[in-house]
Amino acid sequence: MASLAEWIAGARPRTLPNAIAPVIAGTGAAAWLGGADVGRALLALLVAVALIVGVNYANDYSDGIRGTDDERTGPVRLVGARLAAPAAVRAAAAGALSVAALAGLALALLAAPWLIAVGVVCLAGAWLYTGGSRPYGYAGLGEVAVFVFFGPVAVLGTQYTQALRIDAVGAVAAVAAGALSSAVLVANNLRDIPTDAAAGKITLAVRLGDRRTRRLFALLLAGAGAATLVLTAATPWCAAALVATPLAWRAAAPVRAGRRGAALIPVLRDTGLTLLVWALAVAAALSWAPG
C-alpha cells in the first residue's frame, strides 16, 4: 500500500498553482468591477483545487492501466509504480471530483444556475483528458484544454460568480493565466517526449518535436508578458505583475539550454511559481485601483 507521503506526491502538489492562481486573478478581476466576495472566492478555490487533484489522480489511474507510466521521469505514479491498486486511485479521483462537483453546484446556485452546465463540461474534461476510449490528451489537445479550463473558464468563471459580469480586463487576465498554465503542461510533455512517443501517447510535444516544443514554451511565457502589458492600459498598477519576470526567466533557462529528462523537472515548479506570483500581483493591482 502507498504511504500517505506517496498519496500526497501522487496528487502532484506542484500543480496546485495552476488551480489557485486563476481564482486569485479572477477575484482580482471581480474586485476591479467592485464585486469581490470572499465566500464565493473560497468556494471557487475549493472547486479548482479539488478539480486539479481529481485530474491528477484520474491521469495516474488512466495512464497507469494503459502502461504509459511504466517508464516515466518525474512525480510519483501510484499505479505505474505499483504503489497503489488502480481501483484505489480511481476512487481517489472520483472522491476529489465529487468534492469539486458539490462545491461547484453550491457556487452555481449562489450565482447563476446555468453555470452547472459549465461544471459538467469541466468534470468531463477532467476525466476524458487521459480516460475513456479516445482520450484527448493522447491526441495533442491537452495544452488547448489547459488553456481553456485554467484560463477563460477559471478566471472569468471566478469573476462572474462574484461580480455577476465579466469584462475585457478579466478576459486579458484569463489569457495570461491560460498561457502560463499551458506552459506548465508544455514543460511536462517536453520532458516526456521519449516515453510518451514509445507508449503511443501523442501529445502536442510529440507532434511538434523537441525544438518546436521549446519554442512554444517561450512563446507562451512571452504571451503572458504581453497580456500583462495590455493590463497596464486599465491601470498602471498592473505593471507590478512584472515582478514575476525573473521567475519566468529562471523557469525558461533549462528549456533554452536544451536540458532533457529529469533536468526539466524544476521548470514545472518555476513556471507554476511564476503563475502564482503573477496572479497575486495582478489581483492586488486590480483591487487597489478598481475600475
TrEMBL record:
Transmembrane segments: 16-34, 41-59, 107-130, 136-156, 168-187, 216-249, 270-289
UniProt cross-references to InterPro entries, sorted A to Z: MenA, UbiA_prenyltransferase, UBIAD1
Pathway terms, separated by semicolons: Quinol/quinone metabolism; menaquinone biosynthesis; menaquinol from 1,4-dihydroxy-2-naphthoate: step 1/2
Alphabetized CDD domains for the sequence: PT_UbiA_UBIAD1 (cd13962)
Localisation: Cell membrane; Membrane
Keywords per UniProt: Cell membrane, Membrane, Menaquinone biosynthesis, Transferase, Transmembrane, Transmembrane helix
Superkingdom: Bacteria
Record-level Gene Ontology MF annotations: 1,4-dihydroxy-2-naphthoate polyprenyltransferase activity
Bilayer topology term: Multi-pass membrane protein
Documented EC number(s): 2.5.1.74
Reactions catalysed: an all-trans-polyprenyl diphosphate + 1,4-dihydroxy-2-naphthoate + H(+) = a 2-demethylmenaquinol + CO2 + diphosphate
Family: Belongs to the MenA family. Type 1 subfamily.
Job of this protein: Conversion of 1,4-dihydroxy-2-naphthoate (DHNA) to demethylmenaquinone (DMK).
Protein name, UniProt field: 1,4-dihydroxy-2-naphthoate octaprenyltransferase
Organism the protein comes from: Mycolicibacillus parakoreensis
